[in-house]
Records
---
Amino acid sequence: MQFELTSEYLELLKKDIANFDKKALNSRLSELHAADIAEIFYNLEREESKQLYRLLDDETASEVLLELQEELREEILASLTSKEIAGQIDQMDSDDAADVINELPENIQEEVLSQIEDESQASDIADLLNYEEGTAGSLMAKELVAVYAHDSVSACIEEIRRQTTDVKVMYAVYVVDENDKLLGLLSLRTLLVSDPDAKIGSIYDAEVISVQTSQPTAEVSEIMEKYDLVVLPVVDETGRLLGRITIDDVVDVIREEAEKDIQRMSGITDTVAERDSLWRLSRARIPWLLVGMGGGIIASRIIGVYEGQIKIQPEMAFFIPLIGATGGNVGVQSSAIIVQGLANNTLLGDKIAGRLLKELGVGCINGLICSGLILGYNLIISDSVSLAATVSVALMTVILFASFLGTFVPLTMNRFKINPALATGPFVTTLNDIIGITIYFMVGRMMYNHI
Amino acid sequence: MQFELTSEYLELLKKDIANFDKKALNSRLSELHAADIAEIFYNLEREESKQLYRLLDDETASEVLLELQEELREEILASLTSKEIAGQIDQMDSDDAADVINELPENIQEEVLSQIEDESQASDIADLLNYEEGTAGSLMAKELVAVYAHDSVSACIEEIRRQTTDVKVMYAVYVVDENDKLLGLLSLRTLLVSDPDAKIGSIYDAEVISVQTSQPTAEVSEIMEKYDLVVLPVVDETGRLLGRITIDDVVDVIREEAEKDIQRMSGITDTVAERDSLWRLSRARIPWLLVGMGGGIIASRIIGVYEGQIKIQPEMAFFIPLIGATGGNVGVQSSAIIVQGLANNTLLGDKIAGRLLKELGVGCINGLICSGLILGYNLIISDSVSLAATVSVALMTVILFASFLGTFVPLTMNRFKINPALATGPFVTTLNDIIGITIYFMVGRMMYNHI
């Protein structure tokens, strides 16, 4: 049922490509979904994949184009004339078409638009290009089926028959008034089981959730998830129906948001993909590395203050990594839980103080376990009671501090509308490193003077 | 259009709850979606929220129950009799009903099942309970509309009218043969625009993607995302149609998978929520803290070898945190990119060697920048050329090593079918800490002997 790419199959395809055998190739690919064909592209050399694209049937080509990752799509588009691009765009839904045009270099966008044969498609796309990226408007498609409230069921079925020639999948029928203002929706099931003479106005469902074009995509995905919607109508400020957003686009948004959060947590500033250029990959990573280095330099100054003590008690240096690593780990764990709670809206009614107390409770339990274990280890291995006491007391303090920071920093960032996922990464780790080292050496001086 | 919870509204609700004013309360909530009412629950004290639940209308109550987080749902269910639970379950879709029953303590599961009035619902649920968690079977619902290929369009519409009494939203009409084997699907639009006398067999779409009950949920979400499906039929080994999975359940799976990955990356072993008990939160975090501590102890042994050198050159200790932190950060960055590529299937055809080379390239660029900067800093600040040389040479080497490990470890884990997200977390960080310290002191001994 599902396609699995085997190396034998790939070899056969590669031969077809090398022979420019368009017919054999397309018959070999005819049973495959565009998403499967796209997968094949990633298993070919760059030149082969461009060659393959040129050999595809027109309709297949435009479907495959949409399934490719942006970078490869751009490369393939660059090898086509604007007339060829216009031909492919003509066959796409308006939202996909607008996305593809948006990815083109500015100077050829207009050229391509002017060569699209279907004029209503061209004006729909031009319209969609006006919406800012990251808004509901940028996600919506113009293709939808709308009927008037004063129509009868039979007139409505006739209208659907007419309108659905360019709507590939119909999710819902929208009901509007004479000014195109969205009134509600009509399930196809209701339509199927209703009396043909009934008026739409008397059978439609007025409880419809919609978004405005300017709402951010994050809100769109939140709404669709919360209310389990498959399609969401988009209106302007006056409530006029302009388009609709489908769940598959939102699944992509959810996926992208999760990826961005993971990259933020990992100290990568820009969204990058593994296939990006060396230079882009480097540039996205260097800022947080420098922040971490800055933290390391501060730590070196702090340790520098205790240079004299290290000369006498060099064993103090042994546990610098342990203190730093544990503080970092605890901080990341605490902030991950808080960031997740914030993203899920399950932290809504909770007061900051309560959260802090709970995290400190967890910190207490884990701190006692960790410092107890390391106390046992040091008392057995080393003969310095001062060192054993220093490491355990410092570790306990560091774990409590790290729990506090790991909770407090993301909650505070969230309050000031900064993405708290930033806090789960190198920021909290660096902060904990500095504070951990300071605590360790302060405790050390105290212990060695008193024990 | 969307509901926003204000504190005034909350105050009014709290008064209704305190007064046991069922009528005022339900009329106040009547315009809200169950998901909105669930949000209110999280802004009440525990006792208030249980009280509110008892005051809700029956139908609303069963909808709200499904929108609550597991922990609160369990608490509320514990306060109901099994007859009350059975009444609520009777109104749910079979998949939701099975999920709720699965959450009940074993001893009352059967009691509740036996009290469900609708016998076909009870047997559907009992059926669904047999599928293992994490499989397609556990996600599917039994409610679907199926017609025979030999039916006519008009007979089919009649059949839909009959079958849809307990199907709330109809996504697709499935076409089966006399043995209930899935043949294909029929869009409602096709049905609407077809001649009433046409045979279903001549108008249905035979290209239907399905999954078997035993396939893992991760595959289900992959397939639905890849092919942009809203609903996916589920069949048994012989191809008989058993149920269907809808996209909203899969969105939950995607969300959960992303959360699990973030927790794994943060060194949390079990999936926990911020609301879990102190003890559960502690237990989920302690394993990776102990791994990190183990790494810290190994690092302390390594530094111990160089105790004599630290006595003479205590400044060597200053840069232990910088070396450790930078190695950790680089490792996490590299592995995050690789893990993402693996999850996206964009790394499919790539050879490990190529990936390693690219990451080493990025490591080279960032290593040169970082070690160049720290060289400048040390030459200005400190008067030990040996120290300056040691830190920069070690840093460069550590960054290259960390890039290598950050790439190699997740790729290798993936090859051995271990979730590579585990590698992005404390595991790679700990490994890099140990290797970083070793490199640093080895380079240090060399430099101080030769410069």
---
Amino acid sequence: MVSDKREDQGDGYRPQGATDRRVRADAKRNIDALLEAAKVVFATSGVDAAVREIAEKAGVGVGTVYRHFPQRSDLIGAVFRREIDACADAASILAGKHEPFEALANWMQRYAAFIATKRGLAPALHSGHPTFEPLRAYFEQRVRPALRTLLKSAAAAGEVRTDVDADDLLGAVASLCMSSHNDGPDHARRMVALLVDGLRYGTKSSSARSSRSLR
Amino acid sequence: MVSDKREDQGDGYRPQGATDRRVRADAKRNIDALLEAAKVVFATSGVDAAVREIAEKAGVGVGTVYRHFPQRSDLIGAVFRREIDACADAASILAGKHEPFEALANWMQRYAAFIATKRGLAPALHSGHPTFEPLRAYFEQRVRPALRTLLKSAAAAGEVRTDVDADDLLGAVASLCMSSHNDGPDHARRMVALLVDGLRYGTKSSSARSSRSLR
């Protein structure tokens, strides 16, 4: 309300507070478009893709890329951090839309998609560059609790067994999705679904047939 | 009977046929001890372990090792081939001892142990050396039908679902056991058990609780 009053001053200039907000909103939109573009370009052309290609896809200038992310490692780190956030946030979104088991099963596939993105970034992430060091901790801080909450809800509803550890599952899905024995995303999707069905074997809901065929 | 008669000739010499058989039996025993020793030594000291270490463990001379396996690649290939045979043969042995599902579940863990051995040999197996080229085909020829038979029996008994492909499962277990996300053999064992429980989700036997806890 205060700023509304100041915008009515009639001097032809936006008051500083509103301008700052607009600039910040524009910058956030630019950064978001940039990170989305970088994610897609890294996935198709690898993490050494030309900055020009990323800038063009995002609809921003090359200078904007360098202003926000002086080093390539900054950009790669920011893309990965955004993917961690999106994956973790998906847990509560799915929990709001679905029954506990369905939320869990859907999230496990969402996590598999996250791992596929991580696979593309792996050459950089495993390079030992200091920019990437905090990301492991960030992943654990955000993704692990997300799965724990989903597991807990599904277990409380009697839909999954209670003797499976979230870390075990995260590691297993990562193994299924990143291995060279992986026969592509369809194979990974089927095997993650099989693992998730294993979670509900022996529960009250286990006499129901899996809703989706594995073929 | 013929050879028994010849052994009664009283000239102080074993007849040639019996000697050949004895030599062949001795050689087979030597080779078997050698391959078992090589397997263990490769697993602990890597595939570049000293031939002397392998010979000592097998209780044979170094010359015996070189006589049977002139090149290190011959020895590595023979170790791997023997492991493939043992893993494939385990399927019918387990099928003879257990109910179909138990045979399948036990074999999947046996296959996981095979993969752990394969992991140790991987640096050699993936070196592109021509000795190892036929082993992929040999693996598929022996191990794939072994699992198919077990799956078919368990499906016929109504104990596992019918929409899972043997190759998918072999790949998934290999992924779970060989990945860097693998937290050791216990983690792999638990996750293979979970995958196997997924196989029986939705079948008539699925209301029974898994006999083994995953913890």
